[in-house]
Amino acid sequence: MDQLVQTLLFGLSNGFVIALIALGYTLVYGIIQLINFAHGEIYMMGSFMALTVITAAGVSWTDPLGTRLGVIALALVAAMLFAGAVNFTVDRIAYRRLRRAPRLAPLITAIGFSFVLQNIGIWWKGARPIQFPALLPPTNILTDWFGLDTNITLSIPMLFVMVVTIPLLIVMTWFIRNTRLGKAMRATAQDRDAAALMGIDVNRTISLTFLLGGLLAGAAGLINGLYNNQVVFNMGFFAGLMAFTAAVLGGIGNLTGAVLGGIFLGIVAALSDSYLQAQWTPAIVFAVLVLVIIFKPSGLLGEVVADRA
Amino acid sequence: MRRNSFRIPIFLIILALLLPMIAACGSAEENEGSGGGGSSPTQTSSSASPSTGGGSAEATKGTIKIYSSWPLTGSSQKLGQDMVNAVRMAIEDHNNGVAAGYKIEYIPLDDATAAQGTWDAGKEAENANSVVADPDAMVYIGTYNSGAAKISIPILNEAGMAMISPGNTYPGLTKDIEGVVEENEPDVYYPTGERTYCRVVPSDEIQGVAATWAKELGAEKVYVLHDTQLYGYGIAVVFEQTARELGLEVLGMEGIDYKASDYRALMTKIKGMDPDLIFFGGVTDTNAGKLVQDMRAVGMTDVMFMGPDGIFNDDFIRAAGPAAEGVYATFGGLPPSQLTGKGAEWYQRYKEKFNSEPDAYAVYAYEAASVVMQAIEKAGTKDRKAILDAIKSTKDFDGLLGTWSFTETCDTDSTKMSGNVVKDGKWEFVKQLGG
């Protein structure tokens, strides 16, 4: 029983990180039907930026908690802005020219850009995995705060993942549902030409979407660093694949679906690690994807969208 | 290939600068085995060998090309670069890069792609095929990864070219050992029936002493993990078998997905079985650092963690951070800083020249290149078969790792192993294991 609860908790934490990345995928897909394969690398860039800020600040876990939290906040802002800027720039340099091109062209460009960004990553931080300083205390909340007598661990880094992720998700959903810019994004997603005729600056709206996706990926980069304590230049590839799977699982283009898909995948992976052999985990994750696509091609929460003329 | 396009010109410029110097050295046909010696670039030596007729250090007979193939991009970048440096040193140390009157040209190839982050089967095949097609190419030094060797050995075998590896430790490449190698190994790699592949590094079946060491350290219950790769899986099998023979209780053995970002759930399961030691057959690049972190994170602070030479590098400590403390690693051979005699002298020279610690495998790269230089000298002719035979007949080679010979399967007969532990953020030599 303990093992099951523990496994679910780990799965949940991992799922939230996947969900944050999946949101960026789904945002961009929703608006220009582009599967942005470079998105995983944007996430990597965010975590590298966070690591750079933390290294430059020179904090370690021996510093007082206040200092550490300050640096974490600073790193979060830096990572988000940087990743947002990178995503914005990639769109500006590469995808914007291909807006009217066949869908395959921007897709291949995205794959190309993911190589470019990976190599920038190698140049920046080297090729091997680097430890990300554990700035959050590994305190077990259940035993140390609530005095429960249990073997289950719910540590502060795990709680942090959820505490930071949930507000970000809520703000993002609110932004898209209730603001003018959000409305413009939805309009652009529905029909680009009609949106332009109504006076919406379509290019600016798309850029904004990339910026938002980048901000989320940057946040995921820092959160993953603090939780998983390791970064490497090619971490974006597999994380991106998982996030893409989560986005498709939830119904690509649907924000809530991406979050649910991410959490679902995190839990499936953890259960497989724990109760089956760990080497089968990717196979099981992608088998779940195949099953969902066979029986519900639009994803768990996806709506059937009429094909464009 | 992109990397080479700018590296080769620099190498050629260096060669061009060295040429007048070599020419000034006059006739110099040095005896075999000078590879490990500290001959400085300006040192002249005479004693022309009459048997090779017309051979002189003036490189009158033309050029012989030596290629190497291992990862130069991706996560093994530092290691690959150190190995290239070591090969360059070995060639230079032998008569300033002249053997049997031929100028030796060295071209390092990269068998990794940035997308994979590690070696790539297509790239390795491409390297081997391009080398075979080059009439000046006589020897192929490589590979680092055993999986890559599986691809290039048959290609070179068909061409009758010698391949010598400084890094492959998978036994099945040369030996048929029940339960460890596949059924048709190693013959499947040699379509012509003749052996064309040698290695200067001991193969993994001697890594079984890791289990002996684990027992000495007080482990009774062990859990074995591996990265599902040829190297990691092979080592894990050897460890598991030896552990059972020694009476240790093996709680389980399974592969991990080395691309995953988290192993806490897996470690929770293992924690429930209460092991004394976790053995990981894998390398730093297959996420050894994260495994150790997560093992500590779920509360297994007293459990020992042991791995093979693939985690015996500074990058592992960088990846695992404070969690690396107390991790054990075995290594086939001694770490560069523990070498004595010739090896110690080489270690000092390397550090002075490149201003960094050489990777443990750089020693083997140097050794392999030295064997090649000596063999070309001995063969005295630009002929793939003659050079191959000369390499295979290497006996009592006086190298950085002491004196050793190639066995019938063209493996080294050296079985020296070392046990190491991480202490205060550094690998520390604990003891010599095995022969």
**Mass-distribution shape of chain B:** globular
Level-1 CATH class name of the largest domain in chain B: Alpha Beta
| Main β sheet profile of chain A | 2 strands, antiparallel
Instruction: Specify the overall morphology of chain A.
Output: globular
Would you spell out the secondary-structure blueprint of this structure?
The complex is a heterodimer of chains A (309) and B (435).
Chain A: H1 2-32, H2 39-57, H3 65-95, H4 104-125, E1 130-131, H5 141-144, H6 156-178, H7 180-190, H8 192-197, H9 202-228, E2 230-231, H10 235-250, H11 255-275, H12 281-295
Antiparallel strand pairs in A: 1-2
Helix pairs in contact in A: 1-6, 1-9, 1-10, 1-11, 2-3, 2-4, 2-9, 2-10, 3-9, 6-7, 6-9, 7-9, 10-11, 10-12, 11-12
Chain B: H1 2-24, E1 63-70, H2 77-93, E2 98-99, E3 102-110, H3 121-132, E4 137-142, H4 146-159, E5 162-165, E6 197-199, H5 209-216, E7 221-226, H6 230-245, E8 249-255, H7 264-272, E9 277-281, H8 288-297, E10 304-307, H9 314-320, E11 328-332, H10 342-354, H11 360-379, H12 384-392, E12 397-399, E13 402-404, E14 417-423, E15 426-433
Parallel strand pairs in B: 1-3, 1-4, 4-5, 5-6, 7-8, 7-9, 9-10, 10-11
Antiparallel strand pairs in B: 2-3, 11-14, 12-13, 14-15
Helix pairs in contact in B: 2-11, 3-4, 5-6, 7-8, 8-9, 11-12
